[in-house]
Write a structure and sequence with these properties.
Blueprint lengths: L49 H23 L13 H30 L8 H26 L9 H10 L8 H14 L1
Helix pairs in contact: 1-2, 1-3, 1-4, 2-3, 3-4, 3-5
């Protein structure tokens, strides 16, 4: 194991490099091989579904923390918790809308992936869309959660500081936003 993972976010993944030398894998157990001379099998990039799932999970955790904070935090200037303030309720509603949208799109795409094996390569634009929507909504959800919690959200003692760093990493996972949008544009223009 080469400890190469040294990033600003997603540190807990420990995505270090695994180096195998002289490892044997029987030919019938190989999924694919870059030096086989055969064209690679197009599986439709279904592996991309784990990326939006990860960032939706971070967003959900940030939402949960902010909602709990809003229910419990009672500044001296208010008669009750900040959850009673219309602005805070609006922010919580926005987090819910973004979370439900991203999660629904992910689940719908995963269902299509499972049901339509022969059509998987044609789903690539939608896979990119799921990643695009999920990561961008997740970033917005974490940002809103931090606004609800306020300056304390920057403290290393609270999980939002880590979630903020972690969720930003989603922008750098494939496909990049521009590539996802380009695939959608290519498909629309080809219709």
């Amino acid at each position: 194991m080469e400890e190469t993972w040294d990033t600003i976010g997603m540190r807990a993944t420990g995505s270090h490099d695994l180096v195998l030398e002289n490892a044997f894998v029987p030919e019938d157990e190989l999924l694919d091989r870059s030096d086989s001379g055969r064209p690679r099998t197009d599986d439709g990039d279904g592996w991309l579904l784990h990326i939006p799932a990860c960032y939706i999970g971070i967003a959900h955790a940030a939402r949960d923390f902010a909602v709990g904070f809003a229910r419990d935090y009672r500044p001296n200037s208010l008669p009750g918790p900040i959850a009673e303030l219309p602005y805070i309720r609006q922010q919580i509603g926005q987090m819910e809308a973004d979370l439900i949208t991203a999660r629904t799109l992910l689940y719908a795409m995963a269902d299509r992936w499972d049901r339509y094996e022969a059509g998987r390569p044609a789903l690539k634009p939608e896979l990119g869309l799921v990643k695009y929507v999920a990561t961008n909504h997740a970033i917005r959800i974490v940002d809103i959660a931090m606004r609800i919690v306020g300056g304390a959200s920057l403290s290393r003692k609270l999980p939002l500081e880590r979630m903020y760093r972690d969720v930003r990493a989603g922008l750098h996972n494939p496909p990049m936003d521009d590539a996802a949008l380009q695939r959608l544009a290519d498909r629309a223009l080809a219709e």
